[in-house]
UniProtKB/TrEMBL annotation:
Limits of the RmlD-like substrate binding domain: 1-235
Any Pfam family the entry gives: RmlD_sub_bind
Domain of life: Bacteria
Organismal lineage: Bacteria, Bacillati, Actinomycetota, Actinomycetes, Kitasatosporales
InterPro entries assigned to the protein according to its UniProt record, in alphabetical order: NAD(P)-bd_dom_sf, RmlD-like-bd
Species of the source: Streptomyces sp. R21
Name of the protein in question: NAD(P)-dependent oxidoreductase
Length: 272
């Protein structure tokens, strides 16, 4: 079986590739600026803003499964329109599609968000992700739309790098005590995505860890794991800043977890 990872040079994309090649799948991946270094992977440069290029790459690879793990942040042409182009090309080639979305589609107005909750984004990025979800579900009814949260793992995530810099005094800033998410380990997330991809599942799924933590409390756990002094981490309140977006966004993944063999560990466990 051949699989294609859109956004393979990113943090999640690299783990998706690692697991796909370990499972013996023929693996192709796309990159925006530079390819990854995993042996045996066929790399394709891709700007998802170019419809003909998107269609061409998917036609050339002819994969059984396409996983769209790309992220253009608030760039609508990449995050929203790019997802539409990938979906249209997947339909044309008859590929299975897994689209990775985000908890940014929610405002935090509810205590918890399960898979039945409709998006109510507060930021341009959240709005782009919400639009992408709607388009994918309309164009590819059999697709998987998988919302996830803050991705952690192997010390290489952006949040882990930030914690090291703050603890070491090489970066200014603070970790917010009122910014709550449900962190997930990148290994668990990728395994769950492949499990869904290779099943007949369709619709919206939540793939987040079982622990709801503030970015500050998560930072303390990361610091302790790495032998750093968590007491040196500066704390602050996001509510006291002008940063947009929801504060307390907790993805409820229990319904999805019941369908999976892959266990979505909480941060207190995988950072123990």
């Amino acid at each position: 079986m051949t699989v294609l990872i859109i956004g393979g040079s990113g943090f999640l994309g690299a783990e998706l590739i690692r697991q796909a090649t370990a499972a013996g799948h023929g693996t192709a991946a796309t990159f925006a600026s530079r390819p990854g270094k995993v042996p045996g992977v066929v790399w394709h440069p891709l700007d998802v803003r170019e419809p003909e290029r998107v269609a061409g790459v998917i036609a050339d690879v002819a994969p059984s499964v396409v996983v769209n793990a790309s992220s253009g942040q608030a760039d609508w042409a990449v995050t929203a329109d790019g997802a539409v182009r990938v979906a249209l090309a997947a339909v044309e080639q008859g590929c299975r599609l897994v689209h990775v979305s985000s908890d940014a589609v929610f405002s935090g107005a509810r205590a918890r968000y399960d898979e039945r909750c409709l998006p109510d984004p507060l930021t341009p990025y959240g709005a782009a992700k919400a639009a992408a979800e709607t388009a994918v579900r309309h164009l590819v009814p059999g697709a998987v739309v998988a919302r996830t949260s803050l991705i952690i793992g192997y010390g290489r995530s952006g949040h882990e790098r930030t914690v090291r810099a703050l603890a070491g005094g090489t970066r200014d800033g603070a970790l917010f005590t009122d910014d709550i998410r449900c962190p997930v380990h990148v290994e668990d997330l990728a395994a769950a995505l492949w499990e869904l991809a290779l099943s007949d599942a369709a619709g919206v799924f939540h793939l987040a860890g079982s622990d709801a933590l503030s970015r500050y409390d998560l930072g303390v756990l990361i610091a302790r794991r790495e032998g750093l002094d968590g007491a040196r981490l500066p704390a602050g309140r996001r509510a006291d800043t002008s940063l947009p977006g929801g504060l307390d966004i907790r993805l409820d993944s229990r319904a999805t977890q019941e369908r999976l063999r892959t266990r979505l560990r909480g941060a207190r466990e995988f950072l123990r």
